[in-house]
Amino acid sequence: MRTRAWRGWLRVAAGVLLLLLAATAATAQDEQGSGFFRKGTIDGTLDGMTEAEFKADFPEYFPVEGSGVARPSAIPDIFGPGAVLAVGTVLMKVANYGFFGNPFTNVSSDPSGQWPGASGIEYLNLALLAVGAVNPVATDPNAIRRVSSGTEFRPPTLDPEDKMYRAYDGILNGARSFNDDDDAYPRDEGLYRAGDKRFDEDFLDGRDNDLDGSIDEDYGALGQQTITCVVRDDTPQAIAASAAEKHVPLGLEVQQMAWAYSIPGFTDFNLVQYTIFNRSGHVLDSLFVGGLVDMDCGPATASSYWQDDKDLAGFPSCVLPYMTPSDGSDRRLQGPDMRVSGTPPEVPDDSSLCTHFDLRINGFSVVDDDGDLGRTAGIPTFLLVDHTIDPLGKTGPSQVGFRAFRSYTGNTPYAGGGSPRTDQERYEFISGNAGTNLGEDGLINQVMGDEKGDYQAYWSCGPWLLVPENGSIQVTVGFTVAVGNKELADGFAADYGALLADRFSGGSGALVSKYPSLNNAFTIQAAAAGVYEQREWPLLTNGHGRETPVHPTAGEGSITAEDCYDQAPRTVTFAGPVDWFDFDCNYCTGVYDSERRLGLFHHTWNAESPPPNPNLNVAAQYNYADNQTRVVAAGDNRVTIAWDNLSEVTPDPKSNRLDFRGYRVWKAANWLRPVGSAGPSDNDWSLLGEFRQFHEYNYDNTSGLWVLQQQNYSKSSPTSTDSLCPKVYVPNYNFPDGRVGPATVDICLQLDDLWDRQSGQVIKAEQIGCVQVRDTSGNLVCDEAFACINVGRLPCDNLVNWEHRIRYPVGRYKLVDREVKNGFVYFYSVTAFDSTGQGQGMSMLEGRRAATEADGVVPQALVLEGKSAWVVPNPYRGNRNIADRPSSWDLTPNGSDPTGTHVDFMGLPRGRWTIQIFTVSGDLVQTLRSEDAVNESIRTPVTVADGTTVPGYNRQQDNPNDGQASWNLISRNGQDIVSGIYLFTVESDGSTQRGKFVVIR
To answer: How far apart are CA 169 and CA 177, in angstroms?
Structure first.
């Protein structure tokens, strides 16, 4: 979008802030008054702040002018365009301020929890993290039991390193459960011995966490999109923040990782994992984790759409059996081939130890009362997926589940079953057991509310006792949306009861199929349960069912323990090795192969993965004016889409094979920015072409190996009548005279070229310099992958069928789209797909097409030497209905673009210029300069390779050939201009051009 936007929130002076508030005041109103947010969230730090209160709570971002205090480089992801999980169908914002979702709709147009895709249908306001504990060394009675929640968690410092980070499963240095940097423990450390390999020890946060001199050199990423950050509750800003209650920190650090999938069956949910460290310097006792969840259902265009929701407390909560796959993909089955005769003695030798195991579903939901005439067709669900457990139940919970739960309408007082509003109330609630049956199945048992309203919920899990300094616990939650309605959900409790009584036809499989929300939850829990497989790992069990490692710490001497199947206690000494115990009495955990005498690795979140989508030149993080190495996208009635070969050099994280096959190029046009939309919806995309890669192998009979076909795909000695290249039937061939139809034509391909079978179009692989990295000696070398090829699923033993694949930057491939008009916004997405298996077992996985408003690209007219500038459209007719305006490029207004419209100046000269716009009486209306920012409010700053931060926006003159500039019809006084005749001048290099245009409103 080429409108001159308001200054970004972290750059504004107080006057500009007031302008933005005024411009968006209409959208800020609700039945609660003129609160700063979409609605009050009933939490001490987020409940209906005024502008002054907001500034007071975030003083680090609004320093007094002239104070000499610099604003931080790393912005919190609550302002402007932030971190959004967008590879699946649930578009969810992730913040580094103790919550996910987007309650800050007046300062960011990001989706909160939209589904499906950028539909404008919201299902989430926010989900706050709350952590409470007892400080046993506190002398002040008010500091003994405290709870840190919401924006009391903040980035550790104002340094640029403390920001949001992005990755994906299989990324360089981020391969999960893999020793990326080939390092080892230098000395004994807890359960690990000196020389043990280290895996995923350096969390992705821009810091050297393992103190080895390298940053983020070995971390673990999940899914096709990972977003990480670190927050703490003891920052000076959090302590000084103004709120209804003074914040007393516990000394907590939280490593937060959120991720999403783009693979079939996994797209309707997002996961968030909190690793919570005690950095207080002393023990913390009775630690609980929980928080506020405010799910809302309805179109963002509707006023107060959250007021007609219905409560679905405990839906879907249940315990269901999961049959262990018998195809060998999960070794936890432990059949006769994995057991020496007589081990374990109580199990027959011809049977398996784990034919099935239970999956616990811990969730709650809300639902729209009437579905909004079919628009709100989903049910959002919050899930407690996993947390740290103690099989003995002595230091922590023995199974995953809610400790306490309550759901209520937003205005319910705490004493009446509503939200806790002080630390005393919060700790009282999260340490209790309201709403759950802890003594039975541990599931939610609160009765669902009868009336419709704005339902919220508060939950907790725990406790963890005596968490030591630098000790940690981990909690994983999920947010999912599935098709459903109130009538369907109301039948779940009866159906589950019938299942338990063995009266539900079809068993648990039929129950899962009947309820899509349950199907999502079941899929999540099955993925979290993962599989057991053979892999090198420093800690592997030494017996069937033994899941818990035991070893004394230095000075502890020895430990004597007895597990479920021991005939007598065993003693573990500090000088001896780690021993393993079965404390949960479950052969499905701690899987062992006694036939081969080896323990197996528990691979959680074991999912297939398509190649990651390539990096694009139209992406916001690449397409900015200060990126001098970019491939410029916007041209004169054309857009050049360019991308790199990241998809080709990334092995599948599950198989470690190079299984890339090709790309699909997508385009979204005619987007009008519907209210609440963060970008094109799934229905807005159209396919420009499917391009498969020529990267073939020939079988060499001499060596018995598959050899890469390096030569031009043509005959070596053609005759005059021979085709130089294979003739291929193309259904929609583009003839030189413009006709499109079937034809048989020569298709000439070289290594890594791409071609479209439908049109015959060939995209040549550009011969450009590789992406360079430094090796261990500090020398610059080409970045490359080395992994097994996917041809015929050949074995990967002894590195025989492995290949080096060099990584190239953006520009490796280019495609020109000429079906565009200057001044209109377009979106592009390039998805990568793979090809695995053979014959009927062939399958294909593809990344998901997605883009946000910040990724939009606008074609621009060329510089025209010797021609006077003019205005388009002229006259401008500002009809109330956007669709009726002749300037069909107008968009629906929003907070960052309060008019949604623009007129464009064409034929501008090369070099710097200044446009001044006047009334016919000579009053100056506005001044535009070639260096002005045009999309600053939707583009965040970018950190470049040398570590410096540069503006991430485009300018009016975005490149030397850009001869077009936009004006949003806002005067220099911040007001919409009125109907009339306007004059303009263009000053450049001592020359002046003059013109006029008409505005009719």
So the answer is: 11
Q: Distance between terminal CA atoms of the chain?
A: 22
Give the pLDDT band (50/70/90) at residue 476: very high
Tell me whether residue 777 is exposed, middle or buried, using C-beta atoms within 10 angstroms of its C-beta: 0 to 12, 13 to 18, 19 or more: exposed
Measure the CA–CA gap between 572 and 593, rounded to whole angstroms: 22
CA-to-CA separations, 273 to 178, 286, 472, 528, in angstroms, rounded: 19, 20, 13, 12
Calculated CA dihedral for residues 156, 160, 162, 168, nearest 10 degrees: 180
Question: pLDDT band at residue 843, thresholds of 50, 70 and 90?
Answer: low
Whole-angstrom distance, CA of residue 983 vs CA of residue 917: 6
The pLDDT score that the predictor gives to residue 584 is 94
Give the model's pLDDT for residue 21: 29
Provide the percentage of residues in the chain whose pLDDT is more than 90.
59
Around Cβ 844, how many Cβ atoms within 10 Å?
14
pLDDT in tens, 375-427: 999 999 999 999 999 999 999 999 999 999 999 998 899 999 999 999 999 99
Looking only at the bridges linking them, the beta strands covering 113-114 and 91-94 are: antiparallel
Burial degree of 946 (CB within 10 A; 0-12, 13-18, 19+): exposed
Work out the angle at residue 109's Cα, subtended by the Cα atoms of residues 937 and 237, and round it to the nearest 5 degrees. 75
Confidence band of 942 (pLDDT split at 50, 70, 90): confident
Cα–Cα distance for residue pair 435/650, rounded to 1 Å: 47
- Give mean pLDDT, residues 970-976: 92
Could you give the 3-state DSSP secondary structure of residue 755? strand
Which residue's entry shows tokens 């909160």?
Answer: 112
Q: Looking at residue 36, what is its pLDDT?
A: 35
Lowest-confidence pick of 7-16, 70-79, 686-695: 7-16
CB 653 within 8 Å of CB 840? no
Residue 57's SS3 state is: helix
pLDDT (average), residues 473-487? 97
Q: What is the mean pLDDT of residues 900-906?
A: 93
**How are beta strands 378-387 and 318-323 bridged, if at all?**
unpaired
Calculate the CA dihedral of residues 138, 142, 143, 145 and round it to 10 degrees.
110
Residues 729, 743: Cα–Cα separation, whole Å: 6
Per-position b or e across 196-207, b if 16+ CB within 10 A of its CB = eebbbbbbbbbb
Enter the DSSP assignment of 44.
Answer: T
Look-up: residue for tokens 């490796």? 812
For 900-938, give the DSSP string: ---EEEESPPSS--EEEEEETT--EEEEEETT-BSSGGG
pTM of the predicted structure, to 2 decimals: 0.77
Structure tokens at 275: 């690793």
In this prediction, residue 662 has a pLDDT band, given cuts at 50, 70 and 90, of very high
Could you tell me if 396 and 390 are in contact, meaning their C-beta atoms sit under 8 angstroms apart?
A: yes
Length of the chain measured in residues:
1001
| Measured distance CA(78)–CA(10) in Å, rounded | 11
Nearest to 705 by CA among 638, 803, 613, 633: 803
Domains of the chain: 33-288 (no CATH), 292-473+480-534 (no CATH), 634-713+749-849 (no CATH), 870-1000 (2.60.40)
Task: Decide if pLDDT at 30 tops 70.
Answer: no
Sign of CA dihedral 501, 504, 507, 509: negative
Which whole number is the average pLDDT over 93-97?
92
Structural contact between residues 1001 and 878, judged by C-beta atoms closer than 8 angstroms:
yes
Look-up: residue for tokens 């009538």? 487
* CA dihedral (26, 30, 35, 37) positive or negative: negative
E strand residue ranges, 279-395: 285-294, 298-299, 309-312, 318-323, 356-361, 363-368, 378-387
Instruction: Report the pLDDT value the prediction gives residue 313, as an integer from 0 to 100.
Output: 96
